[in-house]
Every structure is written in C-alpha cells, then in structure tokens.
Design brief:
Number of domains: 1
Strand content: 25-35%
Shape: globular
Number of helices: 2
Number of strands: 5
CATH superfamily: Ferrous iron transport protein A (FeoA)
Helix content: 10-25%
CATH architecture: Roll
CATH class: Mainly Beta
C-alpha cells in the first residue's frame, strides 16, 4: 500500500521509499525527513481540494506532502500495538525523548 492510499489516523510502518531514477532528490529528501524502513507513520489530515496536500506524521514530526510524494512511500498497516506515534493532542516530545 502507498502512503497516499492510507486512511486517516491509521498507523503504518514504512517499507521503502521508491526512487524514480538514480540519485532522485525527492526520494532522498523523504528519507532525510525520517521516512525510512521500520519507522511508524500515519496520515493526520488531508487538504480540502482533492485531498492534496496531506499531513503525515513520523514520530513527533509532521510534514505536508504532495500526494505524488506520498505515493513514493510504500507502507504496511501496523499492528494495534504500535506506540511510537505521538497521540493526536500531543505536539511535543516527552522529556525523556527530548534532545538537550
């Protein structure tokens, strides 16, 4: 399943980020932002026009992505025990996870 197809508020695990060509700068940037295999991700919101852009959350970070960018990310729906995504109302990392 592609991240762009994931229902809102459904936890998933990143499987891969697809490069359209060698040294693809968009795929590289997505990986730099944290969309790497094994990371937990979810869609927080969709834009008002054609569901574009969408807001994706990786850990405690949220990013606005175009649907075409989100379509490059392959995900698998996570089990019910996933806890690495911040709760909806929580916008800051807990003290134990903050970088000094």
């Amino acid at each position: 399943m592609r991240l762009s197809e994931l229902p809102r508020r459904t936890a998933a695990v990143v499987k891969s980020v697809d490069d359209e060509f060698t040294h693809d700068p968009i795929a590289r940037r997505l990986r730099d932002l944290g969309f790497v295999p094994g990371e937990t991700v979810q869609i927080i919101a969709f834009g008002p026009f054609g569901r574009d852009p969408l807001v994706a959350q990786v850990g405690y970070s949220r990013f606005a992505l175009r649907r075409s960018e989100a379509a490059r990310i392959t995900v698998e729906v996570a089990s019910a025990t996933v806890t690495s995504i911040a709760p909806a109302g929580e916008t800051e990392a807990p003290p134990s996870q903050r970088i000094a």
